Structure formats: structure tokens, C-alpha cells
Automatic annotation (TrEMBL):
Listed EC numbers: 4.3.1.19
Pfam families reported in the protein's UniProt record: ACT, PALP
Protein name in UniProt: threonine ammonia-lyase
Cofactor: pyridoxal 5'-phosphate
Gene3D superfamilies named in the record: 3.40.50.1100
MF-aspect GO terms: threonine deaminase activity
PANTHER family in alphabetical order: L-THREONINE DEHYDRATASE CATABOLIC TDCB (PTHR48078:SF6), THREONINE DEHYDRATASE, MITOCHONDRIAL-RELATED (PTHR48078)
Gene name as annotated: ilvA
Length: 409
């Protein structure tokens, strides 16, 4: 690694001085439910409450602020599907320069609207972030604007590292920090700061299993592109780790674990219900790891702090993820039940459900289907249950009454 690409604690402290007048010092709050499950104190670092709704302005502002005045005057450009776009747009406006952002076609409408509201000129180009990034690079080459990469630059890493400085001030005895991980800028920054100031602290990264480039990359000793990218956690769905973060993560981070989509949904739901915090799936990745065998069965040095890296979630996605989380937690049961096509049969079915203590959410009654006999109908039924054990009780009650049941979730 070239020396110019390394990040030291001096750069992190300098970034903290640059950011102090403009960046919020986000709270770190305890979570009783996670503390009970982990057997040690667990706290949440609420970067979802940061300006623009994520940690991204820390790196973006530091990067733009460090540009020479004549360079900054030519404007900045970025490519992003959401959080980085907003971070760059807000930072550019604060530093009195122009920003242009390339976003993929089909990017979340709320993130698109927010990026424009922060003052950026937005272009929708390409069907993925790689295509948007190519357009942004071409724009930079043509206009002289500076490309602000979302994670692969020392100033970005140093800016993100200021999260760790706040954690050390708020929880001086911290033993483990869990970090949602995409391109690696936040993870690398946290690792650099903690290694310099509190080397006892373990740093653990978390990726979505359906978009996990880091485990294979670390095993190979070089960044390797992920084979697939199919996760609701779009904020950490990065296909290729950055070269600058990779060098620091490979040296300083203990491990990177992965979590599945069910775990992400449950984590988001827990943050909403128990912590009263709106968190996007990527931001809840650390909580997901603490809820699953990825980390729950470990004896992690405490206190444990997990970073809620962002809270910018499309309301429509939030609705779907809440439903998915309720299903994954055994609190929704969707099923198809075959009943006789005669008066009273549907009433009898619903009577069993009611006596079992479940609450009906939705019923669809259908007489069509090649698998049905002429005297049968199929009922698609969604009910609310009190958890996995109650879910099983409802299914057992229906089968004991002779109903043919296929549970979908």
C-alpha cells in the first residue's frame, strides 16, 4: 500500500476538528433487550440521527473541506443510490460549492428527492451503481469536478473514523464495536481510531450474506467482487471493497460476519419497537448479528457498541420489511387451507383460528385452482400470532380439526 493511501490517528483527529462545527454528536443509548440476550451491556450508536440520516456526511464533508479552494470551486460529483448522495449534496452546500450526483434508474424516490433538496443536480443514469459511477467519472473528466468516492479515499476514511472518537468519549470502557460494512470506509475508520487510542477494543464488521464481498476478499488477501448482490440492505450492498479501506481492515479488524435477510428484518423491527428508532436495513446489520448465532453465542468483551449507520428507509420498503420481520419472528402466519365448498366451512375454519387465540389479518377465498377438487375451495389466510410457539399451536389446532394446511411463512 502506498503511504499516501494510509490513514493515521493524526488525520482522524484533524477530521474531528474540521467536522466539530457542523456534524452532530449523535447519542449512544443502551438496549436492555440486547444486553439481556448478550449477557453484557449493549449500546447503540445512533448515526441514523446524524445530519442527512446517516454517517456519510462525516467523510464527505471532510473530503470536500480538504480540497484546495480552486479545486473546490469547480464543484464535486458523486455516484450513489442514497446515503452518500445526500451526504455529498449536504456537504457541498455547507461548503458553498456545487454538487452533481448520478443515481441509478429506479433509485428510491425519497432519497432522490432528499438529494435534490440538499442542493445537488441529480442525473439518473444506469441500472446499478457501477454504471452510475462510470457516468460520474466521465463527468469529472469532462468538467474538472472532483469525484467524491463513497469510501475509497483517506479523507473519507478519516472522516468516518470520528464515529469511533465519539464512542470512546461516550463509552470509555467499551470492549467491542460492531460495524455495518459495505465498501469498508466506516469499518476501516473505526478500526484505525480504536487501534491507536484503545487497542484492547475488538472491532467486528457485519455484511448482508446476500451481498458479502469481504469474507472472500480477506481470505484471498485482495479485494474480490461479490458473486451476487440481492439484499434489502442497499446501504451496504457494495460489490467490491475499496483498496484504501481493505489495507486497514485486513490488518486491524478481528473478523467480518454475515447475516441473512430474516435477521435484518428482525433487527429493524426490534429497533423500531424496543428502541423507538427508525433504522434502515443496512443500519440494523450490527443488531442483526447480535440477535443471531453470528455473534449472540460469543463471549464478546463488553460493553458492546453497535453502530446504527443509517435511517433512510423508503416508507414502502419499511412497510414490507416490518411485515417480513413479523413473519420471521413468528408473529405473522400466512397459510393456504383447503376446505369443503359448502356453507359454514369458512366460518368453521375461522372459528378454530379464533379459539386458538390468533387474530385474522387477511382472508382470500378462491374456488379456482387445478389442484382443487370440484367440491373444494382454497383459503389464503394471514393471522397474527404471539410468537413461534403460538404459531405452531395454531397450525396444530387446524390440522387436528382435519384441515389441509400449507404454511407459507
Amino acid at each position: 500500500m502506498r503511504r499516501m493511501e494510509s490513514v493515521g490517528i493524526g488525520q482522524v483527529e484533524a477530521a474531528a476538528r474540521v467536522l466539530a462545527p457542523v456534524i452532530r454528536r449523535t447519542p449512544t443509548v443502551g438496549s436492555r433487550v440486547l444486553s439481556e440476550r448478550m449477557g453484557t451491556q449493549v449500546l447503540l450508536k445512533c448515526e441514523n440521527l446524524q445530519r442527512t440520516g446517516s454517517f456519510k456526511p462525516r467523510g464527505a464533508y471532510n473530503r470536500i473541506a480538504n480540497l484546495p479552494a480552486e479545486t473546490r470551486a469547480r464543484g464535486v460529483v458523486a455516484a450513489s443510490a442514497g446515503n452518500h448522495a445526500q451526504g455529498v449534496a449536504w456537504s457541498a452546500a455547507e461548503l458553498d460549492t456545487t454538487s452533481t450526483v448520478f443515481m441509478p434508474i429506479g433509485a428510491s424516490l425519497p432519497k432522490l428527492v432528499a438529494t435534490r433538496a440538499y442542493g445537488a443536480e441529480v442525473h439518473q443514469v444506469g441500472h446499478n451503481i457501477d454504471e452510475s459511477l462510470s457516468a460520474a467519472q466521465e463527468f469529472a473528466d469532462r468538467t474538472g469536478a472532483t469525484l467524491i468516492h463513497p469510501f475509497d479515499h483517506p479523507d473519507i476514511v478519516a472522516g468516518q473514523a470520528t464515529v469511533a472518537l465519539e464512542i470512546l468519549e461516550q463509552v470509555p470502557e467499551v470492549g467491542t464495536v460492531v460495524v455495518p460494512t459495505g465498501g469498508g470506509g466506516l469499518l476501516a475508520g473505526v478500526a484505525v481510531a480504536l487501534h491507536a487510542l484503545a487497542p484492547r477494543v475488538q472491532v467486528i464488521g457485519v455484511q448482508a450474506a446476500a451481498a458479502a464481498a469481504w469474507p472472500d476478499s480477506l481470505a484471498a488477501g485482495t479485494p474480490i467482487r461479490a458473486a451476487r448482490m440481492a439484499t434489502m440492505a442497499d446501504g451496504i450492498a457494495v460489490g467490491l471493497p475499496g483498496a484504501v479501506p481493505f489495507a486497514h481492515v485486513a490488518e486491524l479488524v478481528r473478523e467480518i460476519v454475515t447475516v441473512d435477510e430474516d435477521a435484518l428484518s428482525k433487527a429493524l423491527l426490534l429497533c423500531l419497537e424496543r428502541a423507538k428508532l427508525i433504522v434502515e436495513p443496512a443500519g440494523a446489520a450490527g443488531v442483526a448479528a447480535l440477535l443471531t448465532t453470528a455473534l449472540r453465542e460469543r463471549e464478546l468483551p463488553g460493553p458492546v457498541v453497535t453502530i446504527l449507520s443509517g435511517g433512510n428507509i423508503d416508507p414502502l420498503l419499511l412497510t414490507r420489511v416490518i411485515g417480513h420481520g413479523l413473519s420471521a419472528a413468528g408473529r405473522y402466519l400466512a397459510m393456504r387451507v383447503t376446505i369443503a365448498d359448502r356453507p359454514g366451512a369458512l366460518s368453521a375454519l375461522l372459528g378454530v383460528v379464533g379459539r386458538a387465540g390468533a387474530s385474522v389479518v387477511d382472508v382470500v377465498h378462491s374456488r379456482t385452482g387445478i389442484w382443487l377438487a370440484v367440491d373444494e375451495v382454497e383459503v389464503s389466510l394471514t393471522v397474527e400470532t404471539r410468537g413461534p410457539a403460538h404459531r405452531d399451536d395454531v397450525l396444530e389446532a387446524l390440522r387436528e380439526e382435519g384441515f389441509r394446511v400449507h404454511a407459507e411463512l
